[in-house]
Design a protein that fits this description.
Number of helices: 19
Distance between the termini: 47 Å
Number of strands: 14
Largest sheet: 4 strands, mixed
């Protein structure tokens, strides 16, 4: 995981969204040009049209307090760099002395001509306002930061490759970590004692939480202290921390919230040509994120949509490329990563870490959409399959509040979706519990979830997408029968406030032998009342058709799985349009149950 995040940092760096460890973006308003022998040739300002100093990437790996003298390397303000200041001459002298000592020590024996020129300049320079004015320093420049460059060059010398090596060494020495074998880089490097903190995880008590930390001796080994138990170089720690924080940025395209989990996802297309790698990665991430988010649009994981998204992403960058390189299946083998995080006290828990290809995740999402398919479509389902968060909200949460989704269930379900494996039984249990607690089984959300859970977990006859009158499972047929009995009551007593579904669903779905006897006896009354109104001719044939598929002795108790099949049978039957015409000789008009039950 840390290695994948470390690689993602490279993408951020290419897009200019991060800076290297030990560097910072700061205003740099002046540049002093040097000859190779260190002679100062003149000052040039780097001010914008509004008089503001231009921002530049400069070496900086610590924050400076106002009391000590801690110079920055290869740049600083005029007090440090030239020994010129107007507020406190004594402190200015100390600051410049510190700047001089640092550069003489660090650049001793330096062979790079620009860095050697700076060492010679520092060695020879004596703070002198008149000499500075002769170089072009003006009073309006006194608050600016100063950099250096070699004569004939256009960029400051801290951009030279030779400077980066000094910066890395000084930064490592400043952080003081011992050298060890970095598990991310696979090399001996200075290790970090405290890993970076992560921001953007919802629900955390703290705003920033370390991803790797050791707060108890029981978690440590071999006498190591804190982060040395998970040896990671300072550079790698910085990179993975910066990458993860960028992924978890609130409102960012690579971040999702699924109940109590915060999910980050990204693609790694560096194996492709540089001109198309980034568009391919972005297209894969867009399609994946869209499939797990709610929102308008067509079905989220169809090949047509995938093809269109990739075509749009590539069209502007690949006009000159050969046609075979533009195949829509380019993304299939792109490595793809999904990281689920959740707060845990003052730390962060990794709920799951999934590494695969975009193709494998796409197929898993397709399979999930197929598993959820049910007819008729549940109320409020939308044009594409609901997100995992919305699905859990509708099927498991009391009063449909996110905080009431069972703790940890979202992570289990999301992992099952993305790995295309059986859904957790806890989801089935929570969904059936909500039905027994009073959720409306006629909405269809619960039936869709139950069907998906059972079909992936069972080797028995699969539950159908739509009504299957010939299905052999007794619990499924009992659910159908219960829906018919409920419809018979509504036909006989239109406008009844409390139906048998409201009163007896929980008992009928768990202990059918105790409930169906009284209900079937009352059916005769309902049929008689309906016939008085010229309705209900369909009731008895439908009941008879279902009863012939049931055993003579109804089961006394239904297991959790059987209760699920009962729920699906109930929903299928309730959502089915009855016969247009009944065979009852008393039927003279249109039966109100000719409209769907649901």
């Amino acid at each position: 995981m840390l290695q994948a995040l470390d690689r993602y940092y490279d993408r951020l760096e290419r897009r200019g969204e991060v800076v290297m460890p030990g560097w910072s973006t700061e205003p740099l308003g002046l540049v002093l040009e040097l000859a190779e022998d260190g002679t100062p040739l003149g000052l040039a300002d780097r001010l914008t049209a509004r008089g503001k100093p231009q921002l530049d990437r400069v070496p900086k790996w610590f924050s400076r307090s106002g009391t000590g003298s801690t110079p920055f390397f290869l740049w600083d303000n005029l007090a440090y760099a030239l020994g010129l200041g107007t507020k406190d001459p004594a402190k200015t002298a100390r600051d410049h002395a510190a700047f001089r000592d640092l550069h003489l020590r660090e650049l001793a024996g330096e062979r790079d001509p620009a860095l050697a020129a700076l060492r010679r300049f520092v060695e020879a320079w004596v703070p002198d306002p008149e000499a500075a004015r002769a170089l072009g320093l003006q009073s309006r420049h006194m608050a600016l930061n100063l950099g250096f460059r070699l004569r004939g060059e256009t960029v400051p010398l801290h951009h030279r490759p030779a400077a980066a090596a000094h910066v890395e060494r000084l930064r490592a020495a400043h952080e003081g970590g011992p050298e060890g074998f970095c598990l991310v880089r696979g090399a001996r490097l200075p290790l970090v004692r405290l890993h970076p903190k992560v921001k953007g995880i919802d629900g955390g008590a703290a705003a920033e939480i370390p991803l790797v930390s050791f707060n108890q001796d029981a978690f440590t080994s071999y006498g190591h202290d804190q982060g040395f138990n998970a040896p990671t170089s300072a550079a790698a720690a910085f990179r993975y921390g910066a990458a993860l924080n960028a992924l978890l940025q609130r409102g960012g395209p690579n971040r999702l919230r699924i109940a109590d989990s915060t999910v980050a996802f990204w693609a790694d297309a560096r194996a492709y040509d540089a001109s198309v790698a980034e568009p391919i990665a972005l297209a894969a991430e867009d399609i994946f994120g869209d499939a797990l988010r709610d929102g308008p649009g067509p079905a989220g994981t169809t090949d047509a949509r995938e093809t269109q998204a990739l075509r749009e992403a590539l069209v502007t960058v690949a006009e000159a490329r050969a046609a075979p390189d533009l195949r829509p299946d380019l993304m299939e083998n792109v490595p793809f990563f999904v990281l689920g995080l959740a707060p845990n006290m003052a730390r962060v828990a990794v709920r799951y870490w999934l590494a695969g290809t975009f193709g494998s995740f796409r197929r898993a999402l397709d399979a999930h959409a197929a598993a959820l398919a049910i007819e008729p479509k549940p109320r409020g389902w939308g044009a594409k399959p609901p997100s995992p968060a919305r699905l859990l909200l509708k099927t498991t949460a009391l009063a449909e509040e996110f905080d009431n989704i069972p703790h940890g269930l979202a992570a289990e379900v999301t992992r099952a979706i993305l790995e295309n494996r059986p859904y957790p039984r806890t989801w089935l249990a929570a969904t059936i519990a909500r039905l027994r607690a009073g959720d409306d089984p006629g909405r269809g959300w619960h039936a869709a979830a139950i069907k998906a859970c059972l079909n992936r977990r069972s080797e028995r006859e699969m539950l159908p997408v739509a009504l299957d009158p010939a299905h052999t499972d007794p619990a499924y047929q009992l659910g159908r029968l219960f829906a018919v009995l409920e419809a018979a009551q509504r036909t006989a007593l239109p406008g009844v406030n409390t139906t048998i579904g409201d009163r007896w669903y929980a008992a009928a779905s768990s202990t059918p032998a105790r409930v169906f006897g009284p209900l079937l006896r009352s059916l005769k009354t309902h049929v008689a009342d309906a016939r008085k109104r010229g309705l209900g001719g369909w009731i008895e044939p439908k009941v008879a058709e279902i009863m012939q598929r049931l055993p003579p002795d109804l089961p006394r108790v239904l297991s959790l799985e059987a209760q699920g099949r009962f729920a699906v049978g109930y929903y299928h039957e309730r959502g089915t349009r009855p016969e247009k015409k009944t065979d009852s000789p008393t039927t003279t008009g249109t039966d109100p149950e000719e409209t769907p039950h649901g």
